[in-house]
Design a protein that fits this description.
alpha+beta; Heat Shock Protein 90; two-stranded antiparallel sheet; 9 strands
Length: 212
């Protein structure tokens, strides 16, 4: 039922996007569609997985990043390069990681390729010495320095920093044009938002029981 509702909302949003001629009105709708795609990707990951306590972060981010690029309404043609390790991760932390990835990719699509007809976004996920490292980089114009707010201020990335802290991690902008973002956090840490994940697990159990 949850998946059907998400799909129905996506269908309505796509219809709205096609019926609105102005880019300024279509872009917010597309961003909402991207976020719904992220929720659907996580739910699919949880529903299809046979692992109860941990999910494959690499598989989830592959589906999520594919969906984000496919929802792109900007003029630039985006090539997606993925290097995603199959890291077992608690669903609540995976949800936070997905939101961060969605935000970073959406920000790159919206801001990095202005006046460009094509561009490349790289998404990499790896584990090193008990740390999870997410790297999102693009070959666009980068993030300008904001005199009043520092790197990334005013571009919607403040939420990314906050979510990184929720994972007991850090988020850094690197590169000459600050077009490479590295998120690092410990793999093993207390789960976040268990109430939400309990609801998802309950729906997954019901779906499997119905299938039998």
């Amino acid at each position: 039922r949850i998946r059907r509702n998400i799909t129905a909302l996506e269908t309505v949003l796509r219809f709205k996007i096609q019926s609105v001629p102005e880019d300024s009105a279509r872009i917010p709708l597309a961003e909402t569609l991207q976020r719904l795609a992220g929720i659907r990707a996580l739910y699919n990951c949880l529903l299809l997985s046979h692992v109860q306590e941990h999910e494959n972060a690499g598989s989830y981010l592959k589906e999520l990043s594919d969906l984000v690029v496919s929802a792109n309404l900007h003029r630039a043609r985006i090539q997606l390069v993925q290097r995603l390790s199959p890291i077992a991760m608690e669903p609540s932390r995976l949800l936070t990681l997905g939101v961060i990835t969605n935000e970073l990719m959406s920000n790159a699509i919206q801001h990095a390729f202005i006046n460009q007809t094509e561009g490349t976004i790289n998404v990499e996920l790896l584990e090193q010495s008990g740390k999870v490292i997410l790297i999102v980089k693009d070959d666009g114009r980068g993030i300008p320095e904001n005199p009043g707010g520092g790197i990334g201020a005013g571009t919607g990335l403040s939420m990314v920093r906050m979510l990184a802290q929720n994972l007991n991690g850090s988020c850094e902008f690197k590169g000459e044009r600050r077009n490479r973002v590295e998120l690092e956090f410990p793999l093993h840490s207390p789960s976040l938002a268990p109430g939400i994940m309990d609801v998802v697990r309950s729906n997954r159990t019901s779906a499997r029981a119905t299938a039998r």
